[in-house]
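S1.2 Input.
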Amino acid sequence: MTRTATITRKTAETDIKVTINLDGSGVYDNITGVGFFDHMLDQLSRHALIDMHIRATGDLHIDDHHTVEDVGIALGQALTQALGDKRGIRRYGACHLAMDDAQVRTALDLSGRPYLICNLDLPFGKIGTFDTELVREFFQALSTHGGITLHIDRLHGFNAHHIAEAAFKSVARALREAVETDPRKADAIPSTKGSL
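S1.3 Output.
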């Protein structure tokens, strides 16, 4: 069974195509027109071991908001499609990740019940030209459209770049764990309800 998906999303604000392979090796090719965001998507792919190919064009003459949010929506939809009925997955994932001054903790559940707790408190409004508030917007869209209960907490950190990057890497490592096949229950839905 291949766990792949391609999602195309076209609106008056953005035109996006996302292709993922959950059983990849972290090969990425992401171009959104938002440099720092591309760097974060690359980290997400590499550390989740999810192959990711993203092309996005958006109304960047206004700002980066629509592009970042809509990529999160499309990526969440791709995860949902690639996971199918979620048979055999571990479902839960967690990671404490240190990056220089920053330490970020992520816990997530591929529950089908979206909920985001995002306590990153990024200390500056910009990382280069990137609005730091868009980190939360991306994770909100990913959580909502991926059906993910997602908790992300900054434990330490004063450098906004390090905190944001640690968050993406921490989410990636937790996601890697959650989507992996559980060898002890590879034929079962990981819920007493029988469905997720």
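S1.4 Remarks. The first strand starts at residue 4 and ends at 10.
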